[in-house]
Amino acid sequence: MEGACCTTSSTSSSGTEMSKRKQRQHQQDKPYRGIRMRKWGKWVAEIREPNKRSRIWLGSYSSPVAAARAYDTALFYLRGPSARLNFPECIVEDVVDEPHDLSAAAIRKKATEVGARVDALQTAGHARTRSDNLARVPEKPDLNEYPSPETSEEN
Fold first, then answer.
1. Which of 23, 29, 38, 60 is the most buried (most CB within 10 A)?
2. 95 vs 92: CA distance, rounded Å
3. Which CATH number fits domain 29-130: 3.20.20.370, 3.30.730.10, 3.40.1090.10, 3.40.50.410?
4. What is the pLDDT of residues 116-148, one digit of tens each?
5. How far apart are CA 126 and CA 130, in angstroms?
6. 40 vs 6: CA distance, rounded Å
7. Taking the model in full, what pTM does it have?
8. Residue 102 phi/psi, 5° resolution?
């Protein structure tokens, strides 16, 4: 009897540790609510329609932030200001003033517009930092060429 009691408590504590590890790993895999990552690296967003089994496809994006912003937009249109958003500070004031009785197609359109805009801004930001880094790299000399007298005097 006593042995059975002890094994039960030890498995529950190790089970708790396993669930904590899974939660940490899950948080690393899914940094935001409503998105997931495809095997090939794209981030996708979708949301369930209220009181239905169907889902609204919100698109595929290159960054998790863009997918999360698309999800937030759709969630806001479906659930209103009480929705638990990933980025509550990013809901634009004109979105708040619009009516919330939209069709699934209209919600999909608005969410993909927001996601595409965020994705484009982030992609442009990455391209700009890459071009800045490339501009800082000095031109590599051709090692197969003999140095000319002008370049050897400069050094």
1. 60
2. 5
3. 3.30.730.10
4. 999 999 888 765 555 555 555 556 666 677 767
5. 6
6. 45
7. 0.62
8. -110, 155
